[in-house]
Amino acid sequence: xxxxxxxxxxxxxxxxxxxxxxxxxxxxxxxxxxxxxxxxxxxxxxxxxxxxxxxxxxxxxxxxxxxxxxxxxxxxxxxxxxxxxxxxxxxxxxxxxxxxxxxxxxxxxxxxxxxxxxxxxxxxxxxxxxxxxxxxxxxxxxxxxxxxxxxxxxxxxxxxxxxxxxxxxxxxxxxxxxxxxxxxxxxxxxxxxxxxxxxxxxxxxxxxxxxxxxxxxxxxxxxxxxxxxxxxxxxxxxxxxxxxxxxxxxxxxxxxxxxxxxxxxxxxxxxxxxxxxxxxxxxxxxxxxxxxxx
Length: 294
Ligand SMILES: Nc1ncnc2c1ncn2[C@@H]1O[C@H](COP(=O)(O)OP(=O)(O)OP(=O)(O)O)[C@@H](O)[C@H]1O
Ligand SMILES: [Mg+2]
Known about the structure:
Blueprint: E1 3-6, H1 15-30, E2 34-39, H2 45-50, H3 55-60, H4 68-76, E3 88-90, E4 95-98, H5 118-129, H6 131-138, E5 145-150, H7 156-164, E6 167-172, H8 182-202, E7 213-219, E8 224-225, E9 228-229, H9 231-243, H10 255-262, H11 273-292
Parallel strand pairs: 1-5, 1-6, 2-4, 2-5, 6-7
Antiparallel strand pairs: 3-4, 8-9
The protein binds adenosine-5'-triphosphate and magnesium ion.
Magnesium ion binds near residues 15, 43, 45 and 149.
């Protein structure tokens, strides 16, 4: 059951667009059972794409769902952690969703009750890191793929996402500026992997953990000129390839995805030349995701 985190240091690079469309494509074209976890506390972008009618209540903070935040809060108040979580069904496709919660913005290990006992403090930080992982295990959430959308910020929520993910991918605009954040993401993944190894060798020998792998950057808004990426973007692709992994397929910048977002539909449901092209690109990316994140 691969868990894939969609993470980036920069905002507006296509995380939500990639996560949403790949979830639908995995279900629709590959018959996979998919869970999407929305850990983007600011916009709840992927929640809004699946459930447009929830956006207002999300903003007002009036949704009754048990969310990821509920679990962090239980750690802060040192109350017993009840594992239950609300899983909503998106019925047009076989996709389940744990929706966003604005209060995740306030999550930080600083709120954990602390003692002067190093071992206890570290175990407590480890529980914080494991929150999303424990939700999946304790609720026996079994899927073919779990995709996690995130907020563009290095945070303790991001560390929990990295911990639970088998693979992380990083959407980039493929312009000169936005791919610069990729090394930051890679080093955050390394930092989580290293910390867990340290915990394992000291206070948590029984912990079962496979290091999180960086599966690659994904160009989500490439500009083309005559069927190939523009010169500047070709250079960026080359730079990304030399720096590490980048998906061979990419999505070009265009009107299809913008119209799909306005109509609150996947681009697969939209007609028109550009929508067809972007649909095809996203389908190819999904096939590549299946190969890179088996
Ligand atoms: N290839 C594309 N062509 C045109 N518009 C696109 C393309 N990809 C994404 N967009 C649009 O760009 C905007 C930003 O994309 P998206 O919300 O997926 O980014 P994000 O990384 O999730 O942002 P944030 O960090 O704020 O959550 C959206 O309005 C989306 O519809
Ligand atoms: Mg987003």
